[in-house]
Specification:
Structural class: alpha/beta
CATH topology: Rossmann fold
Shape: globular
Number of strands: 5
CATH superfamily: P-loop containing nucleotide triphosphate hydrolases
Strand order of the largest sheet: 2-3-1-4-5
Strand content: 5-15%
Bound molecules: thymidine-5'-phosphate
CATH class: Alpha Beta
Radius of gyration: 17 Å
Helix content: 40-55%
Low-confidence stretches: 198-222
């Protein structure tokens, strides 16, 4: 199963990813994040967050190339081993930050969709930009070049315009516990077998592909 967690900076994605992994420990989760720090594209993008942003075209290209490498080298191998993958930021970050309108976001998604694996579920954490910015300043002390008010407002409106069966919206303006509870409720509503530790399809990975070396505890039923 492939889970993405996305939303504006300061929404609480990283905390939620860690907590989800803890709650799904029986499914041997892999937690990961984008941009990665392992490719030259990811490293350049991380550097740009504090030294100065690249052009929109270069950002689209670099985030996409970093994502394809991440998919082939980390995400797909974990899914093939029947692990749950929980990814902190994924394609919706590119739509939110590298496009200007919901229509452009749809168009860019259609362009990417042929190359990427679409998550089984993407949690979009919703919170006011002012709340997100306050949290960043409290935790990190300074804002990055992606974190000015107009950029985050535009990103927030694009995140909230995404629609489709694989999206779940979570109100992340309250406590950490509240965000986690909403997320777990939605996850179990969608995938009731998760409660028992039974995992099914993640992209093209099927339950029956899980080998003897899988760490999964497979419960009956579901
Ligand atoms: P981080 O704060 O989660 O490490 O991400 C760094 C910044 O990268 C964040 O402010 C949002 C931005 N970003 C994009 O603009 N497009 C993308 O596709 C991704 C993955 C991140």
């Amino acid at each position: 199963m492939f889970i993405a967690v996305d939303g504006i900076d300061g929404a609480g994605k990283t905390t939620l990813v860690k907590q989800l992994a803890h709650h799904l420990a029986h499914l041997n989760p892999l937690t990961t994040k984008e941009p990665t720090s392992t490719t030259s594209w990811g490293q350049r993008l991380r550097q740009s967050a504090f030294e100065g942003r690249l052009s929109r075209e270069k950002e689209i290209e670099f985030f996409h190339l970093d994502r394809l490498h991440h998919l082939e080298n980390k995400i797909k191998p974990a899914l093939v081993s029947c692990r749950v993958v929980i990814c902190d930021r994924y394609v919706d970050s590119t739509l939110a930050f590298q496009t200007g309108t919901p229509a452009q976001a749809d168009q860019l998604f259609a362009y990417f969709a042929k190359d990427i694996l679409v998550p089984d579920v993407t949690f979009i954490l919703k919170c006011h930009v002012s709340v997100g910015m306050e949290r960043i300043i409290r935790e990190r002390g300074k804002l990055s070049k992606f974190e000015d008010l107009p950029t985050l407002e535009k990103a927030r409106s694009i995140y909230e315009s995404r629609s489709g069966d694989n999206y779940e919206y979570v109100d992340a303006s309250g406590s950490v516990e509240d965000t986690l509870q909403q997320t777990l409720d939605a996850l179990i509503r969608r995938f009731p077998y998760l409660e028992n530790g039974l995992i099914r399809s993640g992209g093209d990975v099927k339950f029956s592909d899980c080998g003897d070396d899988s760490n999964l505890k497979i419960a009956a039923g579901g």
